[in-house]
Inverse folding.
């Protein structure tokens, strides 16, 4: 079955960097667009970034533009999110998501990123 | 960006009740709308896509309707496992946006 397993979360100081990874299995990864979505503690969902199946088309939320970089390695069935210049307001659970061709997304279990001194 | 207004933010109901949640867009999105259910400590799960199509495995007491700017999620007969938070999401354009969420709690 479809599995999306995030890793790389943790505690980082403001201004620091972190790289999240998402290992995909149970489907042909290279056929699917992928996204990162986050949820601050006790808050709603916020879409962060999107990458097309080939990696040629990328979008970012304004809140992370210029600081975060999404990428993928189809040979390794993996999605990444490089996060630089982290701020306290980036503290959240980060979900890897598979964009379904019919609409909507499948979700991973999430990884917690905490930005604090 | 497309702004979404989801209401109510909190809904108190009893088992067996019929409940409706609304999602209104700042501009038309055709039927490019999804609904998700999230339980505490868990990732969201897709309930409905294309505004009204039930995801495989989702009970038929859930239904979605609407197109353009106004959408509704209906739970026809609330069950104990349905107490959760629900979100709408538009995938018509970037940035993708979510509604603020509706928490359905036990009355």
């Amino acid at each position: 079955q479809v599995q999306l397993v995030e890793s790389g979360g943790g505690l980082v100081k403001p201004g620091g960097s972190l790289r999240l990874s998402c290992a995909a299995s149970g489907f042909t990864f290279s056929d699917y667009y992928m996204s990162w979505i986050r949820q601050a503690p006790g808050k709603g969902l916020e879409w962060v970034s999107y990458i097309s199946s080939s990696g040629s088309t990328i979008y970012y939320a304004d809140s992370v533009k210029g600081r975060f970089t999404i990428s993928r390695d189809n040979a390794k069935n993996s999605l990444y999110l490089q996060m630089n210049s982290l701020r306290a307001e980036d503290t959240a659970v980060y979900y890897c998501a598979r964009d379904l061709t019919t609409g909507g997304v499948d979700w991973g279990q999430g990884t917690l990123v905490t930005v604090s001194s | 960006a497309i702004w979404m207004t989801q209401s109510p933010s909190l809904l108190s109901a009893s088992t067996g009740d019929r409940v409706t949640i609304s999602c209104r867009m700042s501009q038309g999105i055709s039927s490019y709308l999804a609904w998700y259910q999230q339980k505490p400590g868990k990732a969201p799960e897709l309930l409905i896509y294309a505004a009204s199509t039930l995801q495989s495995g989702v009970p038929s007491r859930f239904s979605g309707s609407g197109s353009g700017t106004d959408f509704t999620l209906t739970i026809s007969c609330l069950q104990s496992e349905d107490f959760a938070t629900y979100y709408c999401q538009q995938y018509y354009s970037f940035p993708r946006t979510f509604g603020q969420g509706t928490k359905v709690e036990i009355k």
Summary: Chain A touches chain B through 22 residues (CB under 8 Å). The mean pLDDT of chain A is 97. Residues 93 and 108 of chain A are 11 Å apart (CA to CA).
